[in-house]
Amino acid sequence: MKLLLPLFLILFAQQPGDPDIDRALVELKAGNTVKAIAAIGDSIKKNPDHADAYVLRGSIRMSANDTAGALADFNKAIQLKPTKGEAYNERAIIRLMAQDISGANKDLDAAITNGFINDGIYLLRAQLRQQQGDLKGAIADLDEAIKLNPNNPQTYGYRAGLLSDSKEMDRALIDLNYLLTWYETEPNTRRDNKPINPVKTANEGEVKNNTPFTIGIDAKTVNGTPADKEMLPIIAASYVRRGLIHSARDNSDAAIADFTKSIRVEPKNPWAYYDRANELEGKGDLEAALADVNRAIQLEPLNGNLRVEHGVILTLMGNTKEAQVDFDMLLRTDTNVWQKRIDERLEAVKKKLPTPEE
């Protein structure tokens, strides 16, 4: 974990002169964590009620993988000053490391209640709420994260996914459009502070971040750029999500366009090929659909659903003998499950095929 020294320096520059803390900061800047921890210990011996010193030492101990020592320091800081928001935040991280999701949630709640507020905390709590099945709460946290930092494209992608899962397709489409427009139009350099969401609601006004940062691990997120490799899976998945919304609204051409863009961004995702194949089936372009399913099978050869689709397309093309090879392969593993799936897909695709007049 990375400690942000400027935050420490800002905090302790505002404190009465403490030579032990000054010495700790010098050692910390030099990378001597053991000596820094010892110096803070000397300070605590002289002033055992200094909660900030415990949080500082706990943060350094976390960076040195001494989670037991860090936890003891954060507990002591909270005991001395129950409103110490950053101590709750960092204790939440330790609890997450111990798989204590409920405890981490409570600490994040306490951190926010006590004024340690930034987009990263809301983003983390949103993930925990999602794990617990609270999609509404997770979306509310992402709303707050975006208010605090309207420049992080990853948050828009995350919220769009949760909105889609919650069947709030109109809101999801707005987020997806913002995110993908940003990806298609922003230069591949670090962006300035212009929000990717240019729309302000009547009561939103100007968003300011008055987060009272003091010490500890900075929970703010780092805004991505189109050139960042970690953004590519998010962008590819967002094109698929938007394509599926277009498909559900019978806008097949827009859906195919988005699936194609997803493939260009991440060409090794079999499900983008699968989704595009479904749309091509509905348009009657069975040769192109078969090519997409073949590519998907190359990427994930053991997936039964892809084999079903392969057989369905062959059936629609009149090649029932080869199709039966696919079906028999699956029926030998589980007759009931795969026969039902095969029948469902054949029936669904036949309904979507254009009539001769069309």
How does this structure look, described?
This protein has a domain at 5-151: Alpha Horseshoe (Serine Threonine Protein Phosphatase 5, Tetratricopeptide repeat), CATH 1.25.40. Helix 2 runs antiparallel to helix 3. It has helices at residues 5-13, 19-29, 33-46, 51-63, 67-80, 85-97, 101-113, 119-131, 135-148, 153-165, 169-185, 231-248, 252-265, 270-282, 286-299, 304-316, 320-331, 335-352. The protein has 18 helices and no strands.
Overview features:
358 residues, mainly alpha, Serine Threonine Protein Phosphatase 5, Tetratricopeptide repeat, 18 helices, 0% strand, elongated
For the secondary structure, the number of strands is 0
From the alpha carbons, calculate the radius of gyration and give it in angstroms: 27 Å
Q: Give the CATH architecture of the domain at 5-151.
A: Alpha Horseshoe
Count, helices: 18
Text of the CATH class of the domain at 5-151: Mainly Alpha
Net shape: elongated
Strand content: under 5%
The oligomerization state is single chain
Arithmetic mean of pLDDT: 84
Helix and strand element order: HHHHHHHHHHHHHHHHHH
N- to C-terminal distance: 61 Å
For the largest beta-sheet, the strand count, sense and barrel status come to: none
